Amino acid sequence: xxEAAAIxxxxxxxxxxxxxxxxxIVWREALRFLHxxxxxxxxxxxxxxxxxxxxxxxxxxxxxxxIPPYETYVLYEVYITPGLVAMVQLFNGMQSSLSMVYDRExxxxxxxxxxxxxxxxxxxxxxxxxxxxxxxxxxxxxxxAWFWDVRPPLMGYVAVLPAxxxxxxxxxxxxxxxxxxxxxxxxxxxxxxFVIFPMFFASSALYPLWRMKEASPLxxxxxLVNPFTYAVELTRFALYAQINWLDLAxxxxxxxxxxxxxxxxxxxxxxxxxxxxxxxxxx
Amino acid sequence: MxxxxxxxxxxxxxxxxxxxARKALDNVSCAIAPSEYRVLLGLxxxxxxxxxxxxxxxxxxxxGGIRVFGHDVRRQPQRALRxxxxxxxxxxxxxxxxxxxxxxxxxxxxxIPPARAKRxxxxxxxxxxxxxxxxxKVRKLSGGxxxxxxxxxxxxxxxxxxxxxxxxVGLDIDSRQSIVDxxxxxxxxxxxxxxxxxxxxxxxxxxSHVIVLHRGRVLADGPRDRVVxxxxxxxxxxxxxxxxxxxxxxxxxxxxxxxx
Lengths: 283, 260
What we know:
- The complex is a heterodimer of chains A (about 280) and B (about 260).
- With about 280 residues, chain A is mostly helical.
- Helix content of chain A is about 75%, strand content about 0%.
- Chain A is globular and about 70 Å long.
- Chain B contains 9 helices and 10 strands.
- In chain B, strand 1 and strand 2 form a beta hairpin.
- In chain B, helix 3 packs across helix 4, helix 3 runs parallel beside helix 5 and helix 7 crosses helix 8.
- The interface between A and B is large, with 47 and 49 residues.
């Protein structure tokens, strides 16, 4: 019996098949993104408003002293640009992970999960596809910021790429994890209030941590345990062609933990899908 | 029932599944031979979708065993899933992408190179009379056309077992008929095993095998005429109503979609 099965079985999936699968998932995400121009514009306008309006207003109020990686006094616009880059990734990560589970994407999740590739690989590929889309948003934002006189060294634009991939993975995996666990966060407004805003404000995105420390030691401690702070700082240093090892270690560690837990949550034997009676809720 | 000596296309062995306290499947067993067409008949909520979710490993069966061409879906999910083509109850095509893009994406999910997936998709679309529309966005298609594209997609990776979960729901009579005919032909010509879940009695064709699932339990399993005879009824409709009559009157639902 098993012999008969073996004869008719297709060959096992090799590395090439894995590559084709990953490429296909990224390709689809890119196609979808190109079709959603409104989403692209929104993703771009958000950080630009912060840069043009908020930063201009705060320039006079907030002085930023010389702190690494900057070698001179920098304008406030220059300081918050890495934070805004991370914000683009934060929004993108939450948006793609949540849509994956809750809205119309539910159907496409089913088709994804019946693929014969291991589920961990499929979910990681899906995250990478989301990151690829966020990269596009980030680089367009950085190009606009360049005209606004935010001009990191040329090498920085290259060096920031791996940092963006890693922090994008971390934020996407976090979104995936949240979507698998917390029922109350089903709509995006909830995610904005309870995840995106607290993470963004209680971090080094808008103000250096030493300033935060002066204002409130408690808030300072919160910023220090916020993984988003490390994503911002990793991006900030990378944009000036430097590596901050602590940030790298924290972001890499968080990525591993979030992704591992998310994959577990999506495994057939436990987690979300079984508890809810399947995607779409159909019994 | 079992022809030849090869493994069964699908073997479900004493599978139970519960969501919390509610038992969705209760000791379900059945077997489908290669190239057999079998209808899984049950009302909404009978457990059809749960059974499909277990076969496609959206979640694990806690008890019993499910084997696809001899491969246990829990122990050898990769081998089992590669033999499976699935058409889900809900629409799962990407509306903003073209038909061809949807199919090539599906090919990638099975490790098929784009060029090969494209050729294969052209073949399948040709057979469905949709070849000229390959470049159209899915959004522009009618419900029946979308379904046919989903069937083409489910067949793209050369599966040997096709699962369809209420594939004709919400379609007009012509579209329904053409989809039933198409899948019948596939079963006959391509020697494809088919498990067709429905609550519509007129989709149980004269010579087809039928499994009656009700409240998570298999009430009958066999060739249509035998099932009818065993129930002492005059036709499959009466059989079904007798088997599932337990005082709640939702037998009416059987006819509910006929006019849809």
